[in-house]
Design goal:
Elements: H1 2-10, H2 12-32, H3 47-59, E1 69-73, H4 85-97, E2 103-105, E3 117-118, E4 123-125, E5 127-129, H5 140-153, E6 159-163, H6 165-172, H7 180-200, H8 206-227, H9 236-264, H10 269-299, H11 304-334, H12 336-339, H13 343-349, H14 360-371, H15 373-391, H16 409-419, E7 430-434, H17 440-448, E8 453-457, E9 465-466, E10 469-476, H18 483-499, E11 504-506, H19 508-521, H20 527-541, H21 544-570, H22 575-579, H23 590-621, H24 624-653, H25 659-691, H26 700-706, H27 724-732
Antiparallel strand pairs: 1-4, 1-6, 2-5, 3-4, 7-10, 7-11, 8-10, 9-10
Helix pairs in contact: 1-10, 1-11, 2-8, 2-11, 3-19, 4-5, 7-9, 7-24, 8-9, 8-11, 9-10, 9-11, 9-24, 10-11, 10-20, 10-23, 14-24, 14-25, 14-27, 15-21, 15-25, 20-21, 21-23, 21-25, 23-24, 23-25, 24-25, 24-27
Amino acid sequence: MPRLTQFLLRHKLAVVAAWLVVLVAGVAAAGAVPGRLSHEFSFPGQEGYEANVAILEAYGNGGPGNPLVPVVTLPAGTTVGSPGAADALDRAFAGVAADPRLRVLAWPATTDDRRLVVDGGRTVYGLVWGPYQGQDGADPALAQALGDGLRRALPAGAEVQVTGLDALREAAAEEPASTGVLVETLAGGLGALVVLAFVFGSFLALVPLLIAAVAILTTFLAVLGLTGLVEVSFFVQFLVALIGLGVAVDYSLLLVTRWREELAAGHDRSQAVQRAMATAGRSVVTSGGTVAVGLLALVLLPAPFLRSIGYAGLLIPLAATLATLTLLPVLLATVGPRLDWPAGRRARRRGPGRSRAASRLWTGWAAGVVRHRWLATLAALAVLVPLTVAALGLRLGDPPAEVLARSGPAREALDRLEAAGVGSGALTPIEVLVPAGSDRQEAARRLGGVAGVRVAAAPTGPAWQRDGTALVSVLPVAETSGEAGEATLQRVRDLAAAELPGARVGGGGALAVDATRTLYGSFPLLAAVAAVTFVLLARAFRSLLLALKAIVLNLLSIGAAYGVLVLVWQEGHGSEAIWGVPATGAIALWVPLMAFAFLYGLSMDYEVFLLARMREEYDATGSTPTAIVQGLGRVGRLVTSAALILFLAFASMASIPELDVKIMATALGAGILIDATVLRALLVPALVALLGRWNWWLPPWAARPLRVPPSDPAPERAGPAGEPAQAYETEAR
């Protein structure tokens, strides 16, 4: 680090010029990246995914795509047995089926299965699959055209409503459109500026935001190159902008704070930069490394869209670290003192050699935690354990239909179906692709006998028979996103495997079940992530116990964040009050994984900031209590401010209309707040106080491969007043 700092200070102009070139290129890249991102979620090699691909290739619809479900209610006193009613229904649905883009399951036009007639013959429902639109769902215009076409063909007085998962989501999403990545980032940046102005009390508050802008645009430039090699998920643009803002500001905040301390201690601007880089700079490197390692969790997963997020996510801390450790030292050594106004002027009036005092509030808090270490530990666990227990109820999958929309025609149609005894499982059909030579009607008969299946039909015509294959549509009683529906899906798969040779089972439910099994079955591989993190932290802290404790507490923090997701979103204790969204009943399967990957690294930032400073103070004093009080006293305000900045960034992300993005933002925001308050301000110092000198133990056999000096802590020395308790009082005052 000293050599890097000396090089930067000798070549200030070249460093600034290089970053200006990158900045200009990054501005151009930021505008081009969104158009090159993918909205696909693929799981190659999985049964459900491969079946859906085969269905889409042959038929152009269905598979992972959800059907629209038109519900026809005949006039009062009229049933399908009334004169002319059946013929009118036949003509109406046959007119829909005449569109070669569509595949229609409806009585009596394409099937004679009267189980699609309910409510004593007055209500008829069908399923219509349109061209697959990817993750965007069915075209809203198709639902409108479908309803209008049926109304024109049916007798006067017949009521037509169209429902379906996509129609319900469309109704639920009728809120102000997203303001875009730029506006969300500016909102987060404004919140960060307010916090930084409070922390610095000078124009230095603008410097971390400048570093953040450079880091974000640099990442976009790298992502643009990445899109030429692999498909990159659309979600990356939000993560780069908002997490890049938070991480870059955090790192800058740490380095600038330490630089100001060194200035106040009497060093000139260049010396202050060198000393800050030798201490805080090393912490930035360690922190950036742990964030990057956390994102390796996504790279290890067998899902291309998550791997792409992992690759792109790795670029975020790397760009933030690079900008912080190269551009920021040059700015501090040149214009830093002039920007540190008016707070810097007040510091200089105190005279050289007087270091900035530790925060009285945080010093007093740290002293109280050390004195009441057991009470602090129990208080922290009283918050974390219930939340972690709540996380055990986490349910993965798509939200049930009942929570997608509370009003509107799509909701009314669903209510009408349910009142007639048709469950919402009709909205999540299972698609069975049978090969040539199979008796599709016999296949439908057997599938219709599976427990939990309401209807199994194999209509005739080119829309249902292509390329030597045929489709059988299986309508479960319960949605495939729920436990009962998943059980039905498994029974369908078992029967297909045993009695329908060559049949392939697809549909959205099959894809979701396989994706969940694939993603979460890979979690044992993530032990490698924890192992690499342990090595990085053990080397940074020169301690085995601190590194192990950091990982365990980090996992506990993530578990608590999952508990918040369950309580706030899955069970609805707050989602409706804050966002107007009822309980989702489930969490999208990718959200916990994404939250784990980012929280694992981001939360470790605060651990590194805090424990690195405690280690430094311990090496200087040989006293664990003094190390805790001085370390938290000097870093507590910084950690709180950094957490608040990240929280504001995630609050901006939560304003994006997409429900899953809101849930993801909640997980990240809750995790950061829990980590910075309950863990870093309470549990971490309490545990360090309880473990005493063993915090700092690093035996020679472990130090050698880490290439750091061993640490054999001596018995604790008394504080400056001869008694630790008095020392805490002295520090607090």
